[in-house]
Amino acid sequence: MFGLGTVARVVGEVRRDVAAAHARDPAARGVGSIEILASWPGVQAVLAHRVAHGLHGIGVPVAPRTLSILSRAWTGVEIHPAAQIGQGFFIDHAAGVVIGETAQIGDDVTLYQGVTLGGTGFQTGKRHPTLQDNVTVGAGAKLLGAITVGHGAKIGANTVVIHDVPPNTTVVGNPGHPVRVEGKRPEGPDTDWIHLPDPIADAINRLSARIAELEREVIELSGSERETVAEVRPLRPVHGPNPAGG
């Protein structure tokens, strides 16, 4: 039954969601909880989902999907009523987020705008991602299929993830590749997306450097005096210190 116990649970979850917005959104500093509930679309979307999920769980027809559609129109976030979402969930900026029917999200997870937790093909059963606790997913990332993203993992902006991600791993690229930032694992939801390494660019740089080395050897062996080796430039120069501290 959708009784007092269910209402109390939903209220507790909403309080933790609002606390998550205070903790993870710099724009929420000094802002009251009522204002966050009234003007943070990510929090509003999660609140609507809490209610829709509760109605879905007790078998109420029509209402859960209707509430989900209204929430999508109001907030720009689409969450299927059957999706399972833990406490302390925060969607920053909210717009364009899609969370599929069989998605499972743990506690203290952060998503940024444009994230998709989607399926692949027309398979039945579990077909959407599982995000364990303390996962952070950057803007525009696409997580597809019944994959598992381990505890504390970070998914870089615009990354496409189609395989399982080990715990405490940072993944970037398309398709996603596990990386480390300056030899260290980033901690917390405030990962500095700008300074994440690019494994594809790094591989191309290594290939360019190897070609330049071979060209120099050919020049030396041929005795040619003309220098034909082109300068190898970084594909993605990054200026300034890393505010995330590595």
Low-confidence regions: none
For the biggest sheet, the summary is: 6 strands, mixed
Class of secondary structure makeup = alpha/beta
Please give the order of strands in the largest beta sheet.
3-6-9-12-14-15
First-residue to last-residue Cα separation: 49 Å
CATH architecture of the largest domain: 3 Solenoid
CATH topology-level name of the largest domain: UDP N-Acetylglucosamine Acyltransferase, domain 1
Number of domains: 2
Order of helices and strands: HHHHEEEEEEEEEEEEEEEH
Number of helices: 5
- Provide mean pLDDT, rounded: 84
Q: What portion of residues belong to β-strands?
A: 5-15%
Helix share bin: 25-40%
Overall geometry: elongated
What's the count of strands? 15
Which CATH first-tier class of the largest domain would you pick? Mainly Beta
CATH homologous superfamily label of the largest domain: Hexapeptide repeat proteins
Structure write-up:
It is a single chain. It is built from 5 helices and 15 strands. The chain is of the alpha/beta class. The protein folds into 2 domains: 192 residues, Hexapeptide repeat proteins (UDP N-Acetylglucosamine Acyltransferase, domain 1); 49 residues, no CATH class. The strands form 3 sheets. It has a 6-stranded mixed β-sheet with strand order 3-6-9-12-14-15. Strands 1-4-7-10-13 form a 5-stranded parallel β-sheet. Strands 2-5-8-11 form a 4-stranded parallel β-sheet, with no helix packed on it. The longest helix has 24 residues.
